[in-house]
């Protein structure tokens, strides 16, 4: 799994698929049908093909993911090779947190979208790795500035990656 930043959004590469998390409108035109778009704004009504912005259970090739409705946004949990990544761009409802903790023991990666400043989600999910567009502080996490990183889940723990672009 590789994660990289673009100007205001993140890209998650898993196998041959790229997941673009809340990309800008001008970038949407460049996306081909091999990639997946995850949109957190449920009012856009674009849930078709490989564009997702609704709660539900999905899979593309060998990546399984779930969208959770948080009233004002959709948050996503991705599973790839028994590793879990949670993406949220805004606040996350307590109901969503309870559901995730009940069914999934460990969240390996927490990806905070550009509009997310909610540190409560970090305490609730206890991820091993955090990505953020904002320069935040998290106790017991070492901080690194990056534009992209390939993750080794067996070796990396308690790292906060701050996107540099």
CATH topology: Metallo-beta-lactamase, Chain A
In the CATH scheme, the class would be Alpha Beta
Mean pLDDT: 89
Return the string of H and E elements. Answer: EEEHEEEEEEHEHEEEE
- Shape call: globular
Low-confidence stretches: none
Structural class per helix/strand content? Answer: mainly beta
| DSSP, total strands | 14
Verbal overview:
By secondary structure, the protein is mainly beta. The chain has one domain: Ribonuclease Z/Hydroxyacylglutathione hydrolase-like (Metallo-beta-lactamase, Chain A), CATH 3.60.15.10. The protein has three helices and 14 strands. The chain has helices at 25-28, 94-103, 120-125, and strands at 2-5, 10-14, 17-21, 36-38, 51-52, 56-60, 63-69, 74-80, 83-88, 109-112, 129-132, 142-146, 148-150, 159-163. It has an eight-stranded mixed β-sheet, with no helix packed on it. Strand 1 and strand 2 (10-14) form a beta hairpin. The longest helix has 10 residues, at 94-103. The chain is globular.
């Amino acid at each position: 799994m590789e994660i990289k930043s673009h100007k205001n959004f993140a890209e998650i590469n898993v196998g041959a698929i790229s997941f673009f998390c809340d990309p800008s409108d001008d970038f949407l035109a460049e996306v081909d049908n091999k990639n997946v778009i995850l949109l957190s704004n449920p009012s856009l009504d674009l849930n078709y093909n490989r564009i997702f912005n609704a709660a539900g259970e999905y899979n593309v090739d060998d990546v399984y993911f779930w969208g959770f409705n948080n009233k004002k946004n959709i948050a996503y949990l991705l599973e790839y090779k028994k590793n879990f990544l949670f993406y949220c761009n805004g606040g996350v409802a307590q109901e969503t947190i309870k559901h995730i903790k009940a069914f999934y023991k460990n969240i390996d990666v927490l990806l905070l979208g550009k509009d997310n400043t909610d540190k409560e989600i970090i305490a609730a999910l206890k991820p091993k790795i955090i990505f953020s567009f904002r320069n935040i502080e998290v106790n017991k996490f070492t901080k690194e500035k990056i534009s992209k990183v390939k993750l080794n889940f067996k070796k990396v723990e308690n790292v906060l990656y701050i996107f540099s672009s």
